[in-house]
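Fresh eyes needed here. Have a critical look at this protein's tokenised backbone.
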Amino acid sequence: MASSSGTVPSIQKNFKYDVFLSFRGEDTRKTFVDHLYHALHHKGIITYKDDERMEKGRNISDELIRSIEDSKFHIIVFSKNYASSSWCLNELVKIMQCHNTIDQTAYPLFYDVEPTEVRKQSGAVGKAFAKHEKEEAAERWRNALSEAAGLAGWDNLIESSITYRHEAKFIKKIVEDISLKLHSINFSVDENLVGMETRVNDIVSSLETGYEGIQMIGIKGMGGGGKTTLARAIFYHISIFFEGKSFVENVREVSKGSLSGLKELQKHVLSDVLNDPNIDIRNVSDGKNMMKKMMCSRKVLVVLDYVDHIEQLEALAGNPNWFKPGSIIIITTRDEQVLVAHGVHVDNIHNVNLLLDEEALCLFHMHAFKREIPNQMYEELSGKVVRYAAGLPLTIKVLGSFLCGRTKREWENTIERLETIPLKETLEKLELSYVGLEDDLQQIFLDVACILKGERKDEAIRVLESCGFCAEIGLRVLEQRSLITISSDGHLLMHDHIQEMGRNIVRRLHPYEPKRHNRLWIKQEIEDILVNELGTEATRCIKLVDSNLHPAVIMKGLRKMNDLRFIHVNTHFGEVDEADRYLPNTLRSLHWPGYPLECLPNTFQAYRLVDLAMVRSKICQLWKWGEYKVLNKLRFLDLKYSNLRTFDLGMTLQLEMLDLRECNDFLELHMPVTLQKLKFLNLSGSNVSNLNLALTPHLEKLTLSIKDMRHLPNGICMLKHLKYLKLKSCWLLEQLPEDLCRLECLEELHLTDCSVLQDLPNNICMMKRLKYLHLPYIGVKKLPEELGLLEGLKELNIEGACISHLPVSIFQLKGTHNMSLLYPKDPILKEVCNRCFRF
């Protein structure tokens, strides 16, 4: 394989033969050497054996010399009479000359003689060599025998010499060793495996050597990402260790839901593993019985490439008891759930990582220039192509092959075209994953590709659920099928080409009529539709960012979009006359950061609205003149950093999330009835004084930052489901109630910058589920002595706090739970903690 670091590999000589056999015919031709030759041949190792390869009528000496020069490895079978033949000794001299080059290697094999007998020409070897003592070449032959006998070979793998009792086992070991060496060579020079060596080694090293059970290995990833290439490389790398092997390509395409297709695949596996092309299978059920009966007697390696349905695995690898212990089944798929459903352990499921930039450049150069180093005038263009491919091997290979031999101008035209017209071959392969989705999953996928890529997962779920989709399950399925990924910080990610494929699906029916697309995301197209009032009922979703359009133009342009369910707009300026204010009543999710008006249009009934987000907006009340509209479907309300002053929760009985953080003018939250579904409430930065949390019995996450708050709100200790509580900058809060310990589900308690707070309740240790206790910049000087009884505590943060003493019980937690303690202010305490805790 070409180096992933971009270095040029050494030039490898091409050999006609893999192995040359040197032997004394009368000793071994019809016995050991014959068995060895056929074993090598059976493994596909091209082997020269003089009575098998020499062409009649040609000079024998010249033929052998050329064959020795044309062989990568030389196996010298030293037997009792080997040294009696001047022919063998001349072969040996030539072999040792070749061995001393960098390309060829000789291996001695001692057949019923000891290595010392060959090295010193003693014993039976000495008797055989005695007749050559007076010949001119004797010294040269002696040196060749001594040098060859000193090489690493096969003298002690079974015993110091071969006996007939060990021949079969010994030959098997020799063939395995040679196969491994040939595999390593071929792997290192195969340009199609650029970037694969590390990936192969990672999976091979994870295999449990000597494991007596059946190992099922899954390789998953997006289409065109290199799953098949990786599986084939692993197959080639380890297949020599198995008694039977089969690589089944494109299971999905061959089966296609057809029983006859599955039957053919079963026949394929059995024919390969049993080396019998005449296998006959009547039906799939018969095939299962035959596989169970015939394969359990041999250790096999089977690769099932591109599986997309559990039925295929049930037909081809239905049960571990079909196979002999030590067998390995490798399955490649785009759908992780297929692997899980078949019982593949999560630790045995490997993701295919896309190529790194250097690896991608190397692979591209191999296809575009047939070498690693490109013409200098193409370096910059090569970089542009690789950036477009974004690490996807399929795209890199297609573009490399297409651009091979073309002029610089043709390269430039191709790259320019790619910016507007997707690469058809890549999109077609990627779309196979989309075609296999259920209808609702297809819609979720298109929403992510066109609108929601890059959004936080929880925000995307709100939008999708607002539009009637089972979002959490849907996103999980898309992730399992390698169509999306979730970043470590919780954002939705999607490979550029998968996104391109999804957007192409939306646009291709009417490529020149954006007004007929069901999703709009291109700024120029959206602005043209809105300015010219070209909207239609076809439009379902709009995402318009960084636009300078006046809100009046936007609202006027929406009037014909009578089936719009989602809109995201972020214009921040402009007043709109009352008559021009408009939003479609069909909206289910409305995101307008920076909304420039003080209220929603009075004509907007919002009877379908589920999700309303107007961050940093000027809105101070939902409707003008205090009009009261019950929003029966509203579940998510996000008005943080807005000018909102008051809100009546009686309008939103289905509300689950209310985020009013940093609404500095917010004074009053009316709670006329119990809100059974409210789970998230953030009022940090507000000045609410009438909060009654007894009316929110299912609250799970609460954040308060009320500077004038002296006591916790009524009912807070009744929140049996509360998991997260954060009190920030509550400067007048002097104490916490003793019954705070009743929050039995609490996992995180944050008391940040509560400088007047002097004590924590002694019974805080009763919060058995507490994992994170953050006390930065609080007035507490001493922690409860029984704090160490919080056995689940993972992190204690006392940054900037005046604490100078920690309970002894805290240090006991370190040894059992690997707890972290962060930022003690006191220098002496900090030194102690440095020795005991992770910082």
In short: Residues 1-12, 52-59, 156-165 have pLDDT under 50 and may be disordered. Residues 304 and 473 are 27 Å apart (CA to CA).
